From TrEMBL:
Gene3D superfamilies: Flagellar protein FliS. It is found in: Cytoplasm, Cytosol. Belongs to the FliS family. This is Flagellar secretion chaperone FliS. It holds the Pfam family FliS. Keywords: Bacterial flagellum biogenesis, Cell projection, Chaperone, Cilium, Cytoplasm, Flagellum. The keyword Cytoplasm applies. One of its GO terms (cellular component) is cytosol. GO terms for biological process: bacterial-type flagellum assembly; bacterial-type flagellum-dependent cell motility. It comes from the Bacteria.
Amino acid sequence: MQTANQVYQQNKFETATPGELTLMLYNGCLKFIKLGKDAIICNKIEVRNINITKAQNIIRELMVTLKTDGEVGKNMLKMYDYILNQLIEANINNDMKALEEAEQYVVQFRDTWKEVIMINRKRQHGSRVQV
């Protein structure tokens, strides 16, 4: 039997727009990067590996769903590839600098994506909308 929170979370994903799902992926990636950073600090190798691998999987998902028929998509794919390589480097070598660099790029993507969603909502609804 599902708890109320589990039902809420399931409905949140099922009713989200593609843009909102992408934003959730960015936020999830940042969550796992933070957990990976905490694990590096605490020297918890298994926890680091689990969380950075989850962040890598999110970047891979963003890569395979990206439309690359235009120049912007091709450039984003290159950036995702770079982020993925930084995550791999961080995971293999316990490299906080590589992890922080990946985090900075994901934050920039997330913040830009959030702005795009807000602009689209304002156009659709004509009012100030929070994401």
